[in-house]
Specification:
By secondary structure, the protein is α+β, with helices and mostly antiparallel strands. Helix content is 27%, strand content 21%. The chain is built from twelve helices and twelve strands. Strands 3, 4, 5, 6, 7, 8, 9, 10, 11 and 12 form a ten-stranded antiparallel sheet that branches. Strand 3 and strand 4 form a beta hairpin. It is globular. The chain starts with 6 loop residues before the first helix and ends in a 9-residue tail after the last strand.
């Protein structure tokens, strides 16, 4: 099934006849609603249309137009957007361009979105599978900056407060070596090994030794320019990991999946291009989602799940961690990934703002006009 057309795409095909139907329907909204009342005649709509279009052929054309135009919402809601389609949509979005980002948010709000697999990882003594449900309205700014070039809350900025100086590892034993491998899962997708982050002098552990991946991830973060777009809410698989690993995708589809109130975000550079993917927990943000558990009883451990912890049994946590070098690394459960903690300290979230540089080009950055820069 092809991707449903937007309103603009539908209207671009219209001629004078279709615009006449559209204008008449807008001018006669009350009369059209009256035809749907319980006490209305069974053919009330046709009688109403006969007054405007006596010819049967004209009314048949109206019905054809109405089915497409008024049925567009149901068609979009029933469209199953695959994980790869979602990732591809984000990949082609330049968040500096209003049209592109608005189209992405519109699609996220409209289509029936699948959960996006991230893969499986071990952190805090627990190994499990992770996925996220797309969304872009979870986090709210601590500082409500305003102005003509200040963006909405789907794109935000953060002044990152490091728990310790970046010369020290904050989680030296968090997840083992940083790489990628295919598990014993029977999931159909085959993944290539992602490139490791480029080593930097400041993250080097010594001559001839490989840099600590956590320190590399931390060294990539500019504490005064961490602009990101919200992508979704993180979920952890609550079933038996070893069982799911042996049987493949079926146990994962059955669940259970538990939310942990961490938000998946993609970092943006000055030009609005997407980069690395992170998970973020912010204590001051209120996460509100529809509960579709259908009354299913939660496991005892899930009832006491600490918000912000990846899994109820995790013995460690963080407030910001890197999970992928880019969006292309997402989308498959048989991919091993690692949580690379950036900080355990709460940071301040601001709005993002568009600026004009010396070359009169638009750039994106934090709206920090009245806020001290991070130390």
């Amino acid at each position: 099934m092809p991707l449903p057309d937007t309103d603009e795409m539908i209207q671009a095909r219209w001629g004078k006849r279709e615009w006449a139907f559209y204008n008449w329907a807008n001018d006669n909204t009350k009369a059209l609603e009256d035809t749907l009342k319980i006490d209305a005649k069974w053919n009330a709509l046709d009688l109403l249309l006969q007054k405007r279009w006596p010819r049967k052929k004209d009314r048949e054309d109206y019905y054809a137009w109405s089915r497409e135009w008024n049925g567009r919402f149901m068609l979009r809601m029933s469209y199953k957007w695959s994980p790869q389609e979602f990732i591809d949509k984000v990949l082609v979005t330049n968040f500096l361009e209003a049209e592109g980002s608005v189209n992405l948010w519109w699609a996220m709000d409209t289509y029936n979105l699948s959960s996006i697999p991230i893969g499986h990882a071990k952190f805090g003594g627990v190994e499990s599978y992770y996925a996220f449900k797309p969304g872009h309205r979870f986090l709210k700014p601590d500082r409500n900056e305003s102005g003509p070039s200040v963006l909405g809350t789907s794109i935000l900025a953060m002044t990152v407060q490091f728990t310790k100086p970046r010369a020290l590892s904050i989680a030296g034993n968090s997840s083992g070596s940083y790489g990628s491998s295919s598990s014993g899962s029977k999931a159909s997708s085959v993944l290539s090994q992602p490139a490791k982050p480029a080593s930097r002098t400041r993250a080097s552990t010594g001559s001839g030794q490989q840099a600590d991946p956590v320190e590399v991830a931390r060294s990539e973060v500019d504490p005064n320019h961490f602009v990101f777009a919200q992508l979704g809410l993180l979920y952890v698989y609550g079933g038996d990991y070893e069982y799911a690993k042996g049987w493949g995708i079926d146990p994962l589809e059955q669940g259970p999946w538990w939310r942990n109130d961490l938000v998946v975000v993609v970092r943006l550079d000055h030009k609005g291009n997407h980069g690395a993917v992170y998970v973020l927990y912010h204590p001051n943000s209120s996460i509100e989602v529809d509960d579709d558990s259908d009354g299913e009883e939660l496991a005892p451990e899930a009832k006491y799940h600490v918000p912000g912890r990846l899994h109820p049994r995790c013995n460690d946590g963080f407030l910001l961690a890197k999970i992928a070098n880019n969006l292309k690394e997402l989308g498959h459960f048989n991919k091993e990934f690692h949580f690379l903690p950036i900080t355990k300290t709460a940071s301040t979230i601001h709005r993002a703002q568009l600026f004009e540089n010396k070359e009169h080009e638009l750039t994106i950055g934090p709206a920090l006009a009245m806020v001290k820069r991070a130390a």
